[in-house]
Amino acid sequence: MATRALREVVVRRRVGAAGIVGGRRFSDTAAAAAAAPAGAAERGDGGAGKAVNLFTAVNQALHIALDTDPRSYVFGEDVGFGGVFRCTTGLAERFGKQRVFNTPLCEQGIAGFAIGLAAMDNRAIAEIQFADYIFPAFDQIVNEAAKFRYRSGNEFNCGGLTIRSPYGAVGHGGHYHSQSPEAFFCHVPGLKVVIPRSPREAKGLLLASIRDPNPVIFFEPKWLYRLAVEEVPEGDYMLPLSQAEVIRKGSDITLVGWGAQLAVLAQACEDASKDGISCELIDLRTLIPWDKETVEASVSKTGKLLVSHEAPVTGGFGAEIAASIAERCFQRLEAPVARVCGLDTPFPLVYEQFYMPTKNKIVDAIKATVNY
Fold first, then answer.
1. Domains 2-233 and 245-370 share a fold
2. Residues acting as catalytic residues
3. In the predicted structure, residue 163 carries a pLDDT above the cut 70
4. So what's the architecture of 245-370 in CATH?
5. Where would you find this protein in the cell (predicted)?
6. What pLDDT, on the 0 to 100 scale, is given for residue 252?
7. Coil, helix or strand for 103?
8. Helix, strand, coil shares of the chain as percentages rounded to 5?
């Protein structure tokens, strides 16, 4: 199936402008807007909306991506049947098995094929069924996709590559279906890493990722596939990458997170407010390149920072945020940067509630930091 799809593509050489963003080599991000079809708003509302859950919002984004760009392909294990989380439901029936197809159970092969397809001026949207199984594709992603533009002196690239994968806790996944591997890819120059917190964010950020002229790793919080429901515009729209969002204003402490952890942080903010603590909550949205300026401005105001994520605390991306803000805001910090994260253990099954960075853990850390 994949071979037939490859025969259909036209071989092209794509040469794009390149620049340095946050110390990493990326193609000009303004090209993402140019790559979007006419009528797609960069920050637009996408027209009227209705309440849908997160996996439906992802499905809408994939429909739009395939419909607006004939160079787009969606593939991965079981995607032709709708996928294990139903994110690709109806795509093969509408767009055909030449553009939406199953692959062998071989993540290295999925990533390698995706890189080749994207290098030929196509939009390769590859699915890794669980983020826990992205590691067999690690060499292809890190040593090929991330370095393609750099090693060719900008003559070639695979900027049309987006790798989607569900990540994080799901309530019963155990150590092979619950991991949060985002920090591994944040360490790699040449990749972008994006994680949405809600259905509206998922649709707009996924469309922006697919149209961005750089390889993007797009992690979807599987815990929220069905639990998170909000009004999502039915039309085509994109949300800006590398731009954090302040979703709650506050004055006493800054809280930073991404993905499913935003819901937990929001609950902690509510509980802390009952004790008179005003929390400012920021969704990072894009981890690489991340929006240091928005976080710095917030911490300069509050004087305190707490970062929370599901991945283990040691080497987690929260450590990079803590180090960067300590450098930028050293004279304005009134307390050590706090981190409330997963434990340095394999992800447990029956002890998941002890592993997770829960609302109560965060509230305790908020109070300790504010009262430092």
1. yes
2. 107, 177
3. yes
4. 3-Layer(aba) Sandwich (3.40)
5. Mitochondrion matrix
6. 98
7. coil
8. 40, 20, 40
For the 2-233 domain, the top CATH level (class) is: alpha beta
- How many whole angstroms separate alpha carbon 372 and alpha carbon 367? 8
178 alpha carbon, distance to own chain's centre: 16
DSSP-derived 3-state class of residue 260: coil
pTM attached to this predicted model: 0.89
Query: Helix H segments across 72-174?
Result: 91-95, 107-119, 138-139, 148-151
Domain ranges, ordered by start, for the chain: 2-233, 245-370
Long-range contacts of 367-372, Cβ-Cβ distance < 8 Å, separation of 24 or more: 367/272, 367/275, 367/277, 368/338, 369/253, 369/304, 369/306, 369/335, 369/336, 369/338, 370/252, 370/253, 370/277, 370/304, 370/335, 372/304, 372/334, 372/335, 372/336
Do 262 and 283 contact (CB within 8 A), yes or no? yes
Nearest one of 210, 234, 1, 203 to 96, comparing CA atoms:
1
How far CA 331 is from CA of 269, 303, 336, in Å, comes to 25, 9, 12
User: In the beta sheet, which residues pair with residue 305?
Assistant: 254
d(CA 27, CA 92): 31
